[in-house]
Design brief:
Elements (H helix, E strand, L loop, with lengths): L1 E4 L5 E3 L3 H10 L4 E5 L8 H4 L4 E2 L8 H11 L6 H8 L2 H10 L14 E2 L9 E2 L6 H14 L4 E5 L2 E8 L2 E9 L2 E6 L3 E3 L20 H8 L4 E2 L4 E8 L11 H5 L3 E4 L17 H13 L4 E4 L8 H4 L1 H9 L9 E10 L2 E3 L11 E3 L4 E2 L11 H18 L21 H10 L6 H16 L5 H16 L24 E2 L1 H11 L6
Parallel strand pairs: 1-10, 2-3, 2-11, 3-7, 11-18, 17-19
Antiparallel strand pairs: 4-6, 5-6, 8-9, 9-10, 12-17, 12-20, 13-16, 14-15, 15-16
Helix pairs in contact: 1-6, 1-12, 3-4, 7-15, 13-14, 13-15, 14-15, 15-16
The chain binds flavin-adenine dinucleotide.
Flavin-adenine dinucleotide binds next to helix 1, strand 3, helix 2, helix 6 and strand 8.
């Protein structure tokens, strides 16, 4: 097996917004960035439509965004994290502008702010209309490519972290030319979300939580894994992944109707702009009652739709739907993971030498339900916290040893149906136990689906243990929120396996 010594450089795993910003904030300190795909490809970051939530407008204030975030998070946000991250929005936007991101502006040159669900102000900073992620990533990739301290190695999928005495000593990666073992004592996981563990998802196919599997196997503590956000309005065209119809469309006044034209959300507080979990559940219930659901922008936007949302217009038209004259068919789809690798204020995990940021990390910002457009903000802000912490640490010589067989390539597809049925929009004890029984042996078999099964299993165990409904986690057998359960959840892999064996003895056969 090829071994590479990086001369003490830290390694960033993942080339989305979190990974790129960490590398840029670390400059001029040398860093190696591993990415499965070429930069900008297969990242949620490049697919983001709405933009970045930043309470920097003349009628806005960080305290208002903090209040909105805490409300959406439904009682379990880490308040200190919320304050720290939201208050850094102004600096984050200024840094992105400095790096060349062309945010949309009004005629007078001021930043244009969009509105999204559960925000009390128009505060979504965007670029290229609904092409925010693409514009941000294009600008940053140019700067990364021109930064000599950043070495990008494409075509490497990180498959294992090597740990000795709870300290990182290396990363094992798979490439087309075989396995490579990188020696390093500092690793930053920035591998994005887990949406692709579900059948209906808005995430790139490669977003199946491999970073969580790496960290969990290395002994890191996970947090809030049961909280998976289902976006209410994915374009319902039977594709995989499903294109997203941004919340900003509802922000501009589009309404949800069924096949009879009935506006079924009108009686719900906040209606179409209620928090995502409420809207997703309302749509799910209506679909389960046999209805088709549509987003109708004809009245609110009509002929101006393509100008406001060029990317969404293109995706709709490619599927034979004209949003100017027709209601858009939609359905909920797995979209964002509030849970992930538990990190502290500096982005450090419980394993020495292991940091995480972006969607793979769980900072406590989102609680039980992410407020729209807070995630790109978190990726940029926490990349800085991580870079400051990694930059302040001293490199240690390591000599990683690999004691297990090299795992084969990863394939999440066998997990998707199981997790979708067990831990979807609505959950219950029997469904979750069934999911755990199916995922446990799959994880243990050490085949291509093993890492995805491990992450799915941990999500299902966390969901089984939370015997209440809160935010995005809805148990039909425990429909109320319990005051005593209003706290974050933490889980180690060993503990998840033990719980699975205890609660579902049939899982071990
Ligand atoms: C369609 C869509 C629209 C969205 N719109 C918004 C929005 O408007 N505003 C907002 O705030 N949020 C939005 N989100 C959420 C937001 O885009 C993500 O949370 C955020 O971009 C995550 O950034 P990241 O850098 O953590 O991960 P990503 O951008 O997903 O990048 C992950 C990177 O890790 C790499 N990777 C994964 N596993 C491995 C491995 N084993 N080895 C090597 N590399 C690996 C991937 O190839 C990729 O390069 C949206 C998400 C989607 C899917």
């Amino acid at each position: 097996m090829e071994k590479r010594d990086l001369g003490g450089s830290p390694i960033i795993v993942g080339g989305g917004l979190a990974g790129l910003m960490t590398a840029l904030y670390l400059a001029p300190e040398p860093v190696v960035l591993l990415s499965k795909a070429p930069l900008g490809i297969e990242t949620s970051s490049a697919w983001a439509q709405g933009g970045i939530a930043a309470s920097i407008g003349p009628d806005d204030d960080a305290s208002l965004q903090i209040a909105d975030t805490l409300k959406a998070g439904d009682g379990i946000c880490d308040e200190a994290s919320v304050k720290r991250i939201v208050s850094a929005a102004g600096d984050a936007i200024a840094e992105l502008i400095r790096l060349g991101v062309p945010f949309d502006r009004n005629a007078d040159g001021s930043l244009a702010f969009g509105l999204e669900a559960a925000h009390s102000r128009r505060r979504i900073v965007h670029a290229g209309g609904d092409g925010s992620g693409r514009e941000i990533m294009q600008a940053l990739i140019k700067v990364v490519q021109a930064t000599p301290s950043i070495t990008v190695i494409k075509g490497v999928a990180a498959r294992r972290l090597i740990v000795e005495d709870n300290k990182i000593t290396g990363v094992l990666g798979n490439t087309n030319c075989g396995p490579v073992l990188f020696a390093t004592d500092r690793v930053i996981i920035a591998t994005g979300g887990i949406g692709s563990l579900y059948l209906a998802s808005t995430n790139p196919a490669g977003s199946f939580g491999q970073g969580l599997a790496l960290a969990a196997r290395a002994g890191a503590m996970m947090a809030d894994l049961e909280f998976v956000q289902f976006h209410p309005t994915a374009l319902n065209i039977g594709a995989s992944p499903l294109p997203l119809v941004s919340e900003a469309v509802r922000g501009e006044g589009a309404i949800l109707i069924d096949e009879k034209g009935e506006r079924f959300m009108s009686g719900v507080a906040g209606a179409e702009l209620a928090p995502r979990d409420i809207v997703a559940r309302a749509i799910w219930h209506h679909m389960r009652a046999g209805h088709d659901v549509f987003l109708d922008a004809r009245q609110a936007l009509g002929r101006t739709f393509p100008q406001h949302f060029p990317g969404i217009t293109e995706k709709c038209r490619a599927a034979g739907i004209d949003p100017v004259t027709q209601p858009i068919p939609i359905r909920p789809a797995a979209h964002y993971h509030m849970g992930g690798i538990h990190v502290d204020a500096q982005g450090k995990s419980s394993v020495e030498g292991l940091w995480a940021c972006g969607e793979a990390a769980s900072t406590g910002l989102h609680g039980a339900n992410r407020l729209a457009s807070n995630s790109l903000l978190e990726a940029v802000v926490c990349a800085r916290f991580v870079a400051e912490s990694v930059g302040g640490s001293r490199a240690r010589q390591t000599n990683p040893r690999l004691e297990e067989d090299l795992p084969r390539s990863s394939d999440p597809s066998p997990v998707r149906k199981i997790l979708s049925e067990a831990a979807g929009v609505l959950r219950d004890r029997d469904g979750l136990r069934g999911g755990i029984s199916a995922l446990y042996p799959m994880m243990q078999a050490n085949g291509p689906e093993s890492d995805a099964a491990l992450v799915g299993l941990m999500i299902a165990v966390a969901a089984l243990k939370r015997q209440e409904s809160r935010g995005a986690h809805t148990r039909t057998d425990f429909p109320e929120a319990e005051t005593a359960s209003a706290k974050r959840s933490f889980l180690w892999l060993d503990e998840a396996l033990e719980t699975a064996r205890e609660l579902v003895p049939e899982a071990v056969g």
